[in-house]
Amino acid sequence: MLNYVTTNAGKVREVREYLDDGAVTQLDFDYAEIQAPTLEPIAVRGAREAYRHAGEPVVVDDAGLFVDALDGFPGPYTAYAEETLGIERVSRLAREAAEGPGRAAFRCVLAYCDGDDFAASPDPVDRGDRAAAAAAENDPEGDADLPVKLFEGAVRGRLVDPRGDGGFGYDPVFEHEGTTFAEMGPAKKNAVSHRGRALEKFAEWYPSR
User: Fold this and answer.
1) Which one, of 110, 106, 105, 90, lies nearest residue 42 by Cα?
2) Signal sequence: where (predicted)?
3) Domains identified in the chain and CATH numbers
4) Helix or strand (DSSP H, E) at 46
5) Cβ–Cβ contacts within 10 Å for residue 92, how many?
6) Which residue in 32, 39, 7, 34 sits closest to 127, CA to CA?
7) pTM of the model
8) In 3D, which of 114, 133, 131 has the Cα closest to residue 42?
């Protein structure tokens, strides 16, 4: 059984589009999110903490919105910006800073941990492309050698006024090729989204595990 660590049922539905529905369960576990300028160390720490809690294979998902005109803000602080500013204000700030289209990218990092080593890499953190994840070690619990494998996905787009009734989070204000994520059906969104692209890589690798 694979434990997908999230409080968001929408994310679980997305991962089940890529994996056998019965093989994935939602694990509502509130791991500590460290302060970091990139997503990778946050996901790595979360996966290790979740594995210690569950004692079973886990996947932690950390995603962020990186706005060009705001030097990558909110990035790892995307959820905090949503809670404090709201998605419409973030979109407006991006467009005002850019004095035009608020160009941005969504990035997602999936971190997988099952307690075992990865034969393809001697490093405690291994990306899907076999390169070690730089600066991803930050674990005061002393489990920095607990192996974690990362899978990444990204999608470019721009921030707009809210459109559409589907999805969650920033989906109504993130437009990709003329359509917001909230206007897309689940299948179309999965095919192009940052999380969908990371999940596709993970789903290709996971059966071999």
Assistant:
1) 110
2) none
3) 2-208 (3.90.950.10)
4) helix 39-54
5) 16
6) 39
7) 0.83
8) 133
Measured in residues, the chain has a length of 209
Q: Which of 20, 61, 62, 68 is catalytic?
A: 62
Taking only the tens place, the pLDDT of each residue in 79-118 is 999 999 999 999 999 999 988 889 999 999 999 999 988 7
Active site residue 161: no
Among 140, 168, 133, CA closest to 38: 133
Residue 199: phi, psi to the nearest 5? Answer: -65, -35
Distance (Å) of CA 71 to CA 25, 83, 93, 160: 36, 20, 12, 18
**What is the helix (H) or strand (E) element at residue 60, kind and residue range?**
strand 58-67
Cα 127 to Cα 78, 171, 188, 190, distances in angstroms:
23, 27, 26, 21
